Amino acid sequence: VADQGNEIDEAVLAAVARHALHDEELIAAFATGDVEADADASRAQALIDRCTVCRDLHHDLVDIGSALRAAAASPAPAPRDFRLSVDDARRLGGQPRARGFLAGLRESIATFGRPVGATLATFGLVGLLVGSATLGGFASSSSTAIDRGGTPVLASAGASPPAGGFGAGSELTGPAQSTDVTGAFGPLASPKDDVAVPATQGNRDAALIGPSAAAWLLIGSIGLLVAGIVLVVLAERRRPGMRARTQDR
Amino acid sequence: VEDLRATTVTDDPVQRRDLILLQRAREGDLDAFNDLVVCYQDKLFALVVRMVPDRDQASDAVQEAFFSAYRNMKSFRGGSVKSWLSRISINAAMDAQRLKKRRPADPYPELEDDTWQPPADASADPVTSSLTSERHRALNGALAQITHDQRTAIVLYDVEGYDYAEIAEIMKVSVGTVKSRIHRGRLALRGLLLDRMDLFRG
Description:
The structure holds 2 protein chains of 2 kinds. Chain A is mainly α. Helix content of chain A is 66%, strand content 2%. Chain A has 7 helices and 2 strands. A two-stranded antiparallel sheet of chain A has the order 1-2. The radius of gyration of chain B is 19 Å and the shape is globular. Classes of the chains: A mainly alpha, B mainly alpha. The interface between A and B is large, with 51 and 60 residues.
């Protein structure tokens, strides 16, 4: 048994002694994939095939390379906050300004631009419909009164559109009989609410709103619509930066 | 000041964000620059602490890198802001190493530093997590003991993924020297980790 042990030790020692003459840097280059010449690659491969120490070295170097690459996936959190103070920035020659009104506005647009813009655009659209309906109603009620020579005009809620009666003549029905334009937003009138409204009454209501008020409503609505669309577009243009920043954090 | 967004077209949202922030910083918006700092301070610290294993020195180097970036942001000429900041941090780390070389009294304390371990993968079992932490600690400890030239070359090549030409440019040496430093560095790491190689197998 002692002899067998000595034989193993001698074999190991012989292998180590042989390995002492081998080029370890060549094995390291081979493990990294940096051996370009065919002759060098063959020599490295021969060493790995014949020498157990070279083979182990090659395996270990490959494993260490893999561990190093894996280490890239584990960033260490910074032990402190490296943000610059205003004093730092001044000392470094900058002319820092605290985030001003314009920067705040840009940030606000990026954050709230879409909902606010969509709301403005919606109000603009509604105003546009109401204004055009009012003008149309004014014109049609006037013409009806003229055509029928004072015959009462039947304004039926069933004939008006379901969205609260923005159609022509709807301002003459149920709640919309009020002189206020906002009456057009009132609940739908039921068919039993059908009221025969004298043309003279319709003329009086339309006259109270007046074509000039309706025109102003139209102009204002167009303004709102345009402002809303512009706001949404601006918000969309500023969003990628904001989104990326949020993702990265 | 030329508009960075106009000169650099990119589809990468992160890069676009970086360019927008840098542009605003160049216009004097300190908060925009600090947003960039927040985005990259962990990544840059991880890079620098591998090159300068003393955490305090690494912190100082990262702070110096951000100062330098702020000072020189007007000279940024497009491309990746992340790469630009990495280059500045690498230079700051190399300066810190040179300083350490001139005053080598204190060895790097990273071997004993257990203040941070990589976060455990939620899907990994405790044995795997423990093995990963142990491997990470052993590797960092060995990296702290090889020469700083070898460490820099290995960190830039293996961890940060730079190619030989880029490393040669950063370290101001030839490509052959870079390769040699990487090979010798890996051999040195193997010598230091010989008793613990079972951690790295399979």
